[in-house]
């Protein structure tokens, strides 16, 4: 069982702990890094615009028992307790320094970071996770050591990954292949605009040379002849507010590089993309657009899981 310190103020303790969670709750992961502080500032901005509560979770990995000096009269439990108390103080200070997050509840947990963050989100009834992302070495990528990607693979709610503070976006590019998950990503992206701005619906057609020899296009394929029809269906389903401009865009090329280049050209603040629920091995062997975007995009990346 994981050790936990939960230290909410009385107001947020009541909302999160003793009453049903408020709709639209936001969970943010904090580890003290600049990226996680940026995630907190972004989450605070989103929570303020939504008028909902936020909850911060900080996860400490289990302390390796071999690092405990047997000559010292201490135990692994005592070490974890001390680590929890120190991190709790640090998290309190971080929350005090973030505008709008002073009244947030928070908790510090010893456990596996990705699983703990997703578990807390489910328990809180939150519908968005905000997490910082940073560059990782090749070995981390091979063994699956990227917490941000692990959270995205495990989460049943959208995950927003940021490298720096995100102001309220004025333009978002939503990658669409007309699958349920990409349509949900477009809907979440529309909600993130807050009633005004530009939503680009970007469909990327792979170049012909990517298809293997002898490949036959299925009769019910959605491109290229039916793209306009599918775009119209998607636009109709979004019910965008009057002050939101929805622009369908068709690109040609490999999805991730094409999307990254497009967002840079239009100066979009965020890329929204749907996750198809690949396993880690499938993502490693087949390649994943979500993974590539999280690693390569310079803007924030929002990944939405398949709908229920």
- Label the structural class: alpha/beta
Low-confidence runs = 7-22, 136-145, 279-287
Number of domains: 2
Spatial sequence of strands, sheet with the most strands? 1-4-3-2-5-6-11-10-7-8-9
Kindly, what is the distance between the CA atoms of the first and last residues, rounded to a whole number of angstroms?
30 Å
**In total, how many beta strands?**
11
Supply the CATH class of the largest domain.
Alpha Beta
How would you describe the shape? globular
Fraction of residues in H or I helices: 40-55%
Secondary-structure element series? EHEHEHEHEHHEEHEHEHEHHE
Rounded Rg: 21 Å
Strand content: 15-25%
Commentary on this structure:
The longest helix has 22 residues, at 76-97. The chain starts with a strand and ends with a strand. The model is unreliable at 7-22, 136-145 and 279-287 (pLDDT under 50). Helix 4 (113-124) packs across helix 6 (147-154) and helix 9 (255-266) crosses helix 11 (289-296). The protein folds into 2 domains: 4-162, Rossmann fold; 171-304, 3-Layer(aba) Sandwich (Rossmann fold), CATH 3.40.50. The protein has helices at 10-18, 34-50, 76-97, 113-124, 138-142, 147-154, 180-193, 227-238, 255-266, 280-286, 289-296; strands spanning 4-6, 26-29, 54-60, 105-110, 128-132, 159-162, 171-175, 197-205, 244-252, 270-274, 300-304. The protein has 308 residues and is α/β, with parallel strands linked by helices. The chain is globular and about 65 Å long. An 11-stranded mixed sheet has the order 1-4-3-2-5-6-11-10-7-8-9, sandwiched between helices. Helix 7 links the parallel strand 7 (171-175) and strand 8.
